[in-house]
Predict the structure.
Amino acid sequence: MTKDKLLVLGAGESGIGAALLGLAQGFDVFVSDFGKIADDQKQLLNEQGIPFEEGSHDLAPKHPKIVVKSPGIPDTAPIIKELKSNNAKIYSEIEFAYQYTDAKIIAITGTNGKTTTTKLIYHLLKESGFNVGLAGNIGISFAKEVLQNNYDWYVLEISSFQLDDIETFAPDISLLLNITPDHLDRYNYDIDQYAKSKFRILENMSMKGVFIHSADDENINRHINKINIKPWALPFDHTFYHEQKLSIPFKGQSFTFDQLPLKGPHNEWNMSAAILAALSAGVDASDIQKALPSFIGEPHRLQFVKEVNGIKYINDSKATNVEAAFFALQSFDTPIIWIAGGTDKGNDYSLLHDAVERRVKSIVCLGVDNSKLLAAFGDQKVMFETESMKEAISLATQNADQGDIVLLSPACASFDLFKNYMDRGNHFIESVQNL
C-alpha cells in the first residue's frame, strides 16, 4: 500500500517535530530546507530514516498530500506558489499536530506579551495540578509534544504566521492580547490584513469555547464587531488593576500582586488575561493566588540585572517594536537613561514623544543607522550614538544619577549588530555585570 506523502518545509524545531509526528502517523516524509540544517537535526533525521535536502527545494516531491511549512516561509515563496498550483494542502505545524490530539487547548496570540502570558497560564495550571503541556511559537514543537506526551491540556503561543495556515484548529480557550503594527511586510503593509490573521484564532471555535480579549486595544475593537463570535467573549481592560490588586468581574475574584516579579502596565493586562484563562479552564481562585508569587518572568523582558551605585540596570531587549518600548518607559517612576536603536521596522516614534518627554533624561542610540531616532528625539533630549554595547553602558552610566534607571528597550530589531534580541540582551547583561 502506497503511503501518503508529507513534505515538511523548514528543518527548525517545528519542522523536525512535524516530520517525526508524520513518520509515526504512517506518512512518507521528506524534509526540505532552503537554508542549512543544523548538524544535530540532520543526525536525528538520519537516525529516523527520514530523507532530507538542504540549500534548495529541488528534490521536494511535487505532489505531496500535505505540506507542513515553517512559519518563516511566506506565501510568495516560489515553492509555495508551485505547491498551491498543484492543489497541495498547506498546513502550519500547529494545524498538523492539532489533528492528532484530543487534548484541550488554550491558545494565545497578539503582537506583544504572548510569551509572558503563555508561560504564566502554563504556570498557573501546572501549579494547580493540571496535566498540562507548553508548546508553539514559544520555541517548543507542538507536534513533538503530541508525539511524546499525553497531556490533558496544552497552552500554545500562536503567531499570525501559524494562524495563516490553519484549517480545523479550534482552541477551547483563545486569547487575543493586542494588535499593533508588526511584521507588516508579510501583510502588504496593511494592518487590517494582519488583524484578520490574528482573528483567525476564532474561526473554528464553537459556542462552548471562551474568547478572552483586550477591551482597550483600538485595532481589536475596530475589527471585533465585524466578526461573528461564537464562543463566550470575556474582555479585560485597565480598570481590572488598581493598587496592587486585580479585580476580576468573572466569578467575582480579586488577586494581589505585591510579590509578583512582573512590572509595567502591559503586564497588568497580561496577568488579567492569564488569570481569566486559568479561571475559564477551571483552576480554583485560591490556587491561582498561591501560584502567582512563584512565577518568574522571561529573560530580556524588563529583566532586572543589577544595581550599581544606586543605578538600576534593566534588560528589555525583547522590546523590538515601538509599543513594547512604550510600555517599558511607562513602567518606572524614576528618571530613565534609555538605550534604543537597531534595525528599524518602519517605526513611528511619535507614539513615544510624550513618554520620552516625561520620563527620559537622555538617550543612547545603539545601532548602525540611528537617523530616525535622532530625527525623532534630537530636539527633546541629549542623545549619544554608539555601535558598542560596552560603550552604550558606559555612556548611560556617565549620564545617570543615583536612583535613575538605565533601560535597554530598543524598539527595534537587533540584526544590525547582534544575532538576535537574546544575543543583544546577553551582551547588555555581560556589560552590566562587568561594571
About this structure: The chain has three domains: 5-91, 101-294, 303-433. The CA atoms of residues 101 and 163 lie 18 Å apart. The chain has 16 helices and 20 strands.
